[in-house]
Amino acid sequence: MKSLPIRLRLSLWYFAMFASAAALLSAASLWMLQRSAYVTEYHNLQERAEDVQLVLEHENPGQTLDAVRADFATIYDFKDDGKYLQVRDEAGNWIYRSRRMIAEDPQLPAPANLPGTGVLAEFHQGTRYVRILAYPIQVRGRRYAVQTGIAMNKSMALMSAHRADMLLLTPLVILLAGLGGHLMSRKALDPVATLAAQAQSIHDRNLDTRLPVPNTGDEIAELSKTLNQMLERIDKAFASVRAFTGNASHELRTPIALLRTEIEVALLRPREADEYRMTLARMHEETVRMTNLVENLLSLARADGGAETISLAPMRVSRLFERMERTWTAAMQQAMLDFRVEIPQGDFCILGDANGIQRLLSILLENASKYTPPGGSVILAATEDKEHVVLAVRDTGMGIPEEDLPHIFDRFYRVSQAHEIAPRGSGLGLALGKWIAERHGTQLVVESTLGRGSCVSFALKKAEPLFSNSQVPAGKATATFPESAAFKTSRASGGNSIA
Ligand code: ATP
Ligand code: MG
Question: Which residue in 210, 466, 451 sits closest to 320, CA to CA?
Fold first, then answer.
């Protein structure tokens, strides 16, 4: 179900809260007015009963009942207080009864039956609404019951006037509150609407635009800042995608142009079969390079899109090294390099994705073979500690300048000297290698000395051996490669550090 817009919801909430507050306030004020009128009237009636007590106290003790009655008639027949008054002694003799009381004849219990605070009752008489209090008093040891009354028309008129005022005022206040709520919610949400309008004007071609951050330090300023940070990230991602596409097109353009030139030159005039064969061989070489490049590009694109998956499983380091030796020996011989694989004697296993680790080692071995001049050596070795196995590729090649080390994992980055020794690289190998290492929860560590050689290594978690082989003694692989401690070594790393 589509919910109401926030602005309307806020107005409704504001309205509902104010409406209930106003209604509650009116009801409470009415109740309080009623209560204070009631208390005032009670005290009034009580005072009148105590007046009667004073009159009785002033009577002579030996006065006859008739004389007392006559005194009361003299006092109360003309007094307003006497309109609703009747007094009876404990024997049940009437001492005074006003005409209005005789007409109404309300019940007056004996003083012994009355509680100390008296008993209140009400009745209608003509147009009057009367409240009466039957109250016990005591004079010189004798008890009397006094019943006084008061017409409540005035306080009732006051009350109904107040009620009418409230009935008129409350909806007015509620209406004003609704209007105020609407204006307030508009005012509160206006900056959001402005921000939304500004955000809507940002598209892929003006991603460098930033939203204005108000100088208020409030939630809107915080929202603007957060959106700007998000824009910054999107802008960077877009820029890197654009750079990636640009670089990829550039990298592909060169071999395609080369192929085209080869074909055009071959087609200029009829040639011998050998010439055609040589052209085809060069074209084949070029297409192999292109295939590698496209494969790397595809892998990185798939990695960015999350499509490239890695599944970790235990694998034997010795098997892995044997496979790498078989794959790389011929290429190393062709490059006139002394290739040594230090196959570890111990039967230890690592946790990794078989294809991923083979690809990573191939990237490192390819670099070692490319950037090591003929006559040099390349070593693939493994060392173990309690929890990890460190795989390393060392070479005695050209090395990497210190200032280039932080960038060698960037896509399409190549050290300028690399072009001289290996003109046909595209700078994607280590970027892909870094991604593979990251997915294994590790990082590539590069130690290099210019002109002396490089060592790229990464640590992988040890895994339980696939099956126990107690016959095989646990050995430790030792790399015979000269340690770089003797000369200045630079370090760089790409990927996550291993947990
Ligand atoms: P690609 O691998 O895509 O064919 P590439 O080898 O140039 O091209 P990377 O493998 O990413 O790209 O290496 C980046 C740069 O790092 C290389 O151009 C090179 O300058 C430097 N580099 C990498 N490995 C070595 C090494 N073993 N010795 C010297 N320089 C190296
Ligand atoms: Mg490479």
Answer: 466
Mean pLDDT of 94-103: 92
Ligand 1 pocket check: which of 367, 402, 444 to mutate, most ligand atoms within 8 Å of Cβ? 367
pLDDT tens, residue by residue, 438-487: 999 999 999 999 999 999 999 999 987 665 443 333 333 222 233 333 34
Looking at the whole model, is its pTM more than 0.70?
no
Q: Is the CB of 427 under 6 A from ligand 1?
A: yes
Instruction: Considering only CA atoms, give the Rg of the chain.
Output: 52
Residue 188 near residue 220 (C-beta atoms within 8 A): no
Rounded CA separation 297/244 (Å): 9
- The first and second tokens of residue 190, run together, are 């206006």
Cβ-proximal residues to 182 (8 Å cutoff; 6+ apart), any chain: 11, 14, 15
Residue 157 confidence class, pLDDT cut points 50, 70, 90: confident
pLDDT mean across residues, the chain: 87
Sequence length of the chain is: 499
Q: With a 6 A CB cut-off, is 376 part of the ligand 1 pocket?
A: no
Residue pLDDT, tens place only, 111-152: 999 999 999 999 988 888 899 999 999 999 999 999 999 988
Domains in the chain (CATH in brackets) are 6-158 (3.30.450), 219-305 (1.10.287.130), 313-492 (3.30.565.10)
354-370 helix and 429-439 helix, angle to the nearest 10 degrees: 150
480 DSSP assignment: -
CA-to-CA separations, 7 to 174, 176, 177, 356, in angstroms, rounded: 18, 17, 15, 54
Ligand 1 pocket check for 415: Cβ under 6 Å: yes
